[in-house]
Design a protein that fits this description.
Helices cover 29% and strands 29% of the residues. The chain contains 4 helices and 5 strands. Helix 2 packs antiparallel against helix 4. The two termini are 22 Å apart.
């Protein structure tokens, strides 16, 4: 398999997608942040000094999706049609699962956008409660599913 981000002289390039069909493309990514019971309690009881952690993480995730092409060198700027972020409380962990869905109709996929949004949302949670728990663990940032495009559908 040839790497599409290299030209015939092995120099980096952005893939030319101009010949690809416009299709509806959806990607869903998720990740988990594990933390102490004190940090978890502060978040769910909204007792953190920096404000509403989960709401801020949702905004950060959305911003991360929108700014992916500025952060990942070979990603195309995209005309996104929808972004959704859900956060699930995992009381037995304790921690949270953050899931981001990115959608567009276009010539390239949105997997990197969903993964970037997930990562930034989780990092925002970490940033907002690191004074309580510096030992938090961010893990399992992964593509859950994608649809659309030439490569077809994927489901973990």
């Amino acid at each position: 398999m040839n790497l599409t981000h290299l030209d015939e002289n092995q120099r980096p390039k952005m893939v030319d997608v101009s010949d690809k069909d416009n299709t509806t493309r959806i990607a869903v990514a998720s990740g988990i942040i594990e933390m102490s019971q004190d940090a978890y309690g502060a978040i769910v009881n909204e007792k953190t000094k920096k404000g509403p952690v989960l709401q801020t993480a949702v905004i950060a995730a959305i911003m991360g999706v929108k700014k992916t092409s500025e952060l990942i060198p070979m990603c195309h700027p995209l005309n996104l049609s929808g972004i959704n972020c859900d956060i699930e409380e995992l009381s037995t962990l304790p921690g949270f699962k953050l899931t981001v869905t990115a959608k567009l109709t276009g010539q390239t996929g949105v997997e990197m956008e969903a993964l970037t949004g997930t990562s930034l949302g989780l990092l925002t949670i970490y940033d907002m409660v690191k004074a309580i728990d510096k030992g938090m663990i961010i893990r399992n940032v992964q593509l859950e599913k994608k649809s659309g495009g030439k490569s077809g559908d994927f489901k973990r």
